[in-house]
Design brief:
Rossmann fold; 8 strands; Helicase, Ruva Protein, domain 3; mainly alpha; two-stranded antiparallel sheet
């Protein structure tokens, strides 16, 4: 709930009630168990104060409610930023920090345990194949070794997104190191095209979302190679005839004689 707006994070965490209509929040849903709060450093000050009150009184008020709701939960909070620095900067309550910092656990970045990369790649391939019905593809040993030596500035989330993108856009049963290199170049060189991709709606059916993502991705790559479809085919690892059909189907303007 940390990355939401103040109003929405409070409503999701504490729930709400209006005219006898009760919406149970995460606190009540986790009552008697454990609640995971991600990106706690992003939580607004008002919600921080309400959460602190829960620790102090073991109860809370739903949004719009007047009767205290008792609660008994264990809270695990995660953050990718230094909370001590956030406290010093006045962005995070010191008293809440000490309530949360009972048993701190430091998770090393992915680059410090790169021996796990091959297993993580296989895990996310299987996950996307099962959950999103994407085509199965296997990372070659050379591709796995290349990704083991990548620094992963975005950690697990970057790895997960890369696997998903390769399953959606790639061709053939095996992901070779050349395709990985092309993907890493894309990761290292964000442009205005990436900003357009960030605005894609997430409530679309998978086929429509895939088409929009492919269009943004291929337009960006085509621009990078100066409009050459031949170079684009090598860059993205697609057979040229299939790529022509893909570009036409997505309505992407290209210079046919630029090869």
């Amino acid at each position: 709930v940390g990355s939401m707006s103040a109003e929405h994070s409070a409503a999701e965490l504490f729930g709400s009630e209006e005219d006898n209509n009760i919406v149970y929040g995460r606190l009540e849903q986790a009552n008697g168990g454990t609640l995971l709060l991600g990106n706690i450093s992003d939580m607004d000050m008002q919600t921080q104060s309400r959460l602190l009150s829960v620790f102090q009184t073991h109860s809370f008020l739903r949004m719009g409610g007047t009767e205290p709701v008792p609660v008994d939960i264990r809270v695990i909070a995660t953050t990718s930023t230094d909370l001590e620095e956030a406290v010093k900067a006045g962005r995070f309550r010191e008293d809440l920090y000490y309530h949360l910092n009972v048993v701190p656990l430091a998770m090393p970045p992915l680059r410090e345990h790169n021996e796990d990369v091959p297993e993580l790649l296989n895990y996310y391939v299987d996950r996307f194949v099962i959950q999103e019905n994407l085509p199965y593809r296997e990372f070659s040993i050379a591709a796995q070794n290349r990704l083991r030596h990548y620094r992963w500035p975005g950690n697990i989330r970057e790895l997960k997104n890369m696997v998903q993108r390769m399953l959606i856009l790639g061709q053939g049963p095996v992901i070779e190191v050349e395709e990985v290199e092309s993907a890493l170049q894309h990761e290292r060189a964000p442009t205005a095209g990436d900003e357009a991709g960030a605005d894609l709606p997430l409530d679309l059916p998978l086929r429509e979302a895939r088409e929009q993502f492919e269009k943004v991705y291929l337009e960006h790559q085509l621009q990078e190679v100066g409009g050459s479809v031949g170079k684009l085919a090598k860059r993205v690892g697609m057979e040229r005839t299939h790529l022509y059909r893909k570009l036409r189907g997505l309505g992407i303007d290209f210079k046919k004689g630029s090869d």
